[in-house]
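Sugar ABC transporter substrate-binding protein
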Amino acid sequence: MGTVRTRAGRAAVAGMAALATIGLLAGCTSDGDEGEGDVVDQGTTSDENAEEGDTVVIGWSGPEADHGWLGAINSGALAAAESFGDVELRQAEGTNDASQQIAAVEQFINEGVDAIVLLPTDGAALTEVAIQAMEAGIPVINVDREFSSTFASRVTILGDNYGMGVSAGTYICEELEGQSDAVVAEIAGIDSLPLTQDRSQGFADALEDCGLEVSARVAADFTVAGGEAAASQLLSANPEIDAIWNHDDDQGVGVMAAIEAAGRDEFFLVGGAGSVNMMERIEADDSVIKATVIYPSTQAADGIALARLVAQEKTMSDLVTPSVPYRIVLDAPVVTKDNVEEFIDLAFES
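C-alpha cells:
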C-alpha cells in the first residue's frame, strides 16, 4: 500500500515541527552574553534516562525464532527489557503467520500497552494494524522489516542490507587489488526478499567500483541445508574461484560443510550477519573464512530501549535535537581477525 495520511500521522508531523521550532527558538535565544549558558535545550540527560520512571508496558512480537539470528533477536529483546527496572514486557508467541501476528498486535492494542516493538513477519501485511496502534496513541517501534507507510511507526530501526553488500564488496576489492580477472562468487539468501536484493545490489555496486563483477551466483534460504546445497552447486560449476561472499552465517554452516567436503581452499570466504561460530573461525585463521559483515542481532534490544524512552517522553541524550529519531539505520562493519575481539561478545550462535 502507498503512504497513508491519518490524523495521528498529521499530529506526529506537527509534533516534529513543534520540536524543531522549540529547538530553533532555544538556539536563537540568549541573555546577551555570547558564549555563556546552553545554546540549546538537549532534552533529557543520560543520567535522567537511566533513572527509573513510571512503569512502561511494552508489547513485543517477532517471527518464529527458527534460526540463530532470529533467536538472538528474541533473546536480546528479553534481556533488554529485564535490564530496565521500569519495563514490563508482554511477549507474543513468535510466528511466521502474518494473520497470527496481526491478532497479537490487536491484543496489545486492546490491553492498552504503552508501546509496541514489532519485527513483522511481513512488513506490508502488518502495516494496517500498526497504523491502528498509532491511532490509538500507542507508539510502534518497527524493527528490521519496514512497514509500507511512514505513519505506521514512531521509530524505525534497521540493519543496513545495501551497506552489507557494499562492505563485503569493498573488502573483496581490497583483498583482490590488481586482479582484474578474478572470479568472484556470491551465495545469496532468499532471492524474493527485498533485503536479499538490496544486499546483492550493494555488492555489485562495490565490485563495479573496483572493476570487478559477480562471476557466479546462487541463492539459498538462510538455512544450513540450503547453504550446503547452494554451495555444492556453486563449487561444482566453478572449478576456480578467488573469493565468495555468503550473505548469511546461519546458512554459512552448510556452506562451510560443502567447501570442506569438496576439499577446496583456493579462495577466501566472506560471511554475513556475524555469528560467533564464524567469528571463532576467523579468529583461528585456519580455514577459508577470513571475514564476516555485521547485520546487528541487537535491533530488537535497541527497539525496547527506544520504546522506553518514547513512552516516558525522554530523548536521546547524545543528540542536540531534543527527540528520539524517527529512523535509525545501523552500521554494517567488516569483522576480520584484526578486530574480531571488538564484536564477538555481541555475536549470535548459528
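Confidence is low (pLDDT under 50) at residues 1-37.
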